[in-house]
Amino acid sequence: MIRFEQVTIAYAEKPVLAGVDFEIPEGELCLVVGGTGAGKSTLLRAINGLVPHFTGGTLTGRVLVDGRDTAINPPRELADVVGMVGQDPVAGFVTDTVEEELAYSMESLAIPAAVMRKRVEETVDLLGLADLRDRPLASLSGGQQQRVAIGAALTAHPRILVLDEPTSALDPGAAEDVLAAVHRLVHDLAMTVVIAEHRLERVAQYADRVVWLPGSGVAPVIGDPGPVLADAPVAPPVVRLGQLAGWDPPPVSIRDARRLAGPLRERLRLLTPPVADIVPANAILTANAVSVRYGKTPAVREVTLTVSAGERVAVMGRNGSGKSSLLWALQGSGKRASGTVEVDGKDPASLKPPARRTKIGLVPQQPSDLLYLHTVAAECAQADAESGRPKGTCRALVDDLAPGIPDDIHPRDLSEGQRLALVLAIALTPRPTVLLLDEPTRGLDYPAKSRLAENLRALTRAGHAVVLATHDVEFVAEAAERVVVLADGEVVADGPVDQVVTASPVFAPQVAKVLAPQPWLTVAAVETALAAL
Amino acid sequence: MRPPHSGAWWLWALGLAVAASRTTNPVLLAVILAVAGFVAVHCRSNAPWSSAYGMFLKFGLLVIAIRLVFSIVVGGITGPTVLFTLPEVLLPDWAKGIRLGGDVTAEGLVHALYQGLQLATLLCCIGAANALADPRRLLKSVPAALYEVSAAVVVALTVAPQLAVSARAVRRARALRGDAARGRNAIRTLLVPVLEDALDRSLHLAAAMDSRGYGRTAGLPKRTRVTTAVLVLGGLIGLCVGAYGLLDAEAPAFVGVPVLIVGVVLAVAGLVLGSRRLARTRYRPDRWTVPSVLIAASGAAAGAAAVLAEAFGELALIPSTVPLTAPEVPVVPVIGVLVALLPVLLARREALS
């Protein structure tokens, strides 16, 4: 169905992909993995000809899609074969209501009105969009928008569906809905699906085949999910656990792993999982009955939260459960309808912004919103100046968090992980007592996430308190010691990470699911325990 | 039951606006305002644009207020009934004819009130149309050859609200950096991320539209495409040259009307050929159903009644302000405007069935 023949793609003489040579047969779900900047999006966009027709660059070799050469067929002529859903579904919406969006591709393909009507109905049923059909796109939640974007690509009846990070912005529940819909397309309609994703713990189990892009122009490795992921630096925890336990080939689904895990559970039975450090109750952030409202809609309802120095707290919950609103209200830059917040005995909202950031810093969901200068060096110098710190403070923090970022590079040319490190350094320059992070792992690969977790641990050792809002259950297991779960703006659970996440199937990390009922959360914890035996 | 054609609502509102533009009679204007408001509230859907009427009404009140303030300060029509006197500013000779301050008369105020009310009513007619029909849907009814233009307009319409959203996000983020920048620097710190965001977004949108078949030629021969382009371009040049010839008295006679006609013919041929070139269909297009036609006709009736009344010399349309008289009710135009309530009846009947 899709054939890459000795394909090399280069931008300005610098190869992004080289020696790509493989075929994806019909009805297969193919997962493309690799670190950030390894060329996943480029590979995906080469399937429908966006690379090189839209992005520029040179493509040597041949890409054949359903027998058609992408060199002579631009993306619009391939629209009837390839359905493409980009990273940010909202940015790709052309119309403004669900039903019109679903029909847009068909209108472009000149499909007769009667057929269009029928296909819209079918798609609405297939993806469970019946209740949403008249709704404006802007009023939908992230998961709903993602399903509409997939539906809009499906109505043209393409034989191939290409999804770039379909679940990265979604909470675990919504991600499961979207992937279940995709799974059904592969099984019932024999659709060929190509997915690129960082959160492999969510998709790896559905994949028939994995394409691993090692990056920097090295030829990709293709094969069965287990063995390929085991060799790659990016792999879901279940594969890492399999490697640790010596299961061959390493399983990629929880179900397979559980069937093999009997002996491992037996070995671990007498060991005790590491307990989260007991942090002395030395409250530095106290929030009492904080409420946030947008117009008449309440986003946060009377949340009471105390964070001690040296503590790492994760705030979890569905899309739209009020996580971001809570962080902004705690920081004091966002609005607060009622309640009190105290950091070090002062209400941050009553302080002027420059004074506020020395008490409590926040890394927003779009870290790039904070950046506006042309080089990393200029951003660092600006951060030192606005924090009243000696020159070089911010630069030293950047080198600490992500070594090897050159001074003269434009912040937009950094990888996601490097950009996050830069913004983190800017937020840390005034040495705030409390650091808040909103969805920090979006677009980060596993090594980058481990580095971030290590950085956060170092921060709390130095006496800072960290509060992060995230959907990423694996990251929470690795980086947090206390979890607060929000639903509809209210706190529904608050406790040590091992107790809260193992109590819920949605929030449980893979290791906990495989080794249940024993409360192990991370591969690292299991490894340390086994090594001590 | 399908919602009425969006063009029907715009024609209906246009009819009311025509009626409003013919009169300064407060009674008639009030009736038009009431009818437009009642229909807008009664027939609107739950769509996000359906709250437009309230916004336009507020804007209309502001217009009336501004008109009154101007008439008090700058003056204009005066009459014998002086209400109070403002200190007058003496202007130099070259500004003769402009008066600042001085006597404020009841006649002047009433005149200004009538005119402000007329403007406000016109605004509310537009507001009602906006509340009842999505302007973007109307754009979808343009000929297929102009599809590219209408798509560009639709995309442009979404840019403004998106810019506002991203400006708010960046401003909020700026506060996190202590918001140290002031003045010229502040503009740069706000503008750079917002423009980057807008550019990013438009690139994403363009890629998405390309991937979804926008501007597909679907194997049409190159010759047809070239012919269309030549025809449309030639037609446009003809139109320009013709219009120039017609307006410039010095130009030779043959450059005027004949060239204009040739231009029109070429452009129309290009559009027709272009419509055939663009292989596109429409999903559930608006149709001119019987209710749609009735809605448009009821609006037209309101406009026609006012225009006819004016032609037959109905004096009550422009009530006298010097001397001040109580406005009479112009019977025919009021009845005409009341006909524009028909959409409410149609909606009721539909709700019953």
Automatic annotation (TrEMBL), chain A:
It comes from the Bacteria. CDD domains: ABC_cobalt_CbiO_domain1. Residues 2-241, 284-513 form the ABC transporter domain. It holds the Pfam family ABC_tran. One of its GO terms (molecular function) is ATP binding. PANTHER family: ENERGY-COUPLING FACTOR TRANSPORTER ATP-BINDING PROTEIN ECFA1, HEAVY METAL TRANSPORTER. This is Energy-coupling factor transport system ATP-binding protein. Belongs to the ABC transporter superfamily. Keywords: ATP-binding, Nucleotide-binding, Transport.
TrEMBL record, chain B:
It is found in: Membrane. The chain crosses the membrane at residues 29-47, 59-84, 144-165, 226-247, 253-276, 288-309, 329-347. InterPro entries: ABC/ECF_trnsptr_transmembrane. Keywords: Membrane, Transmembrane, Transmembrane helix. It is a multi-pass membrane protein. This is Energy-coupling factor transport system permease protein. It comes from Actinokineospora diospyrosa.
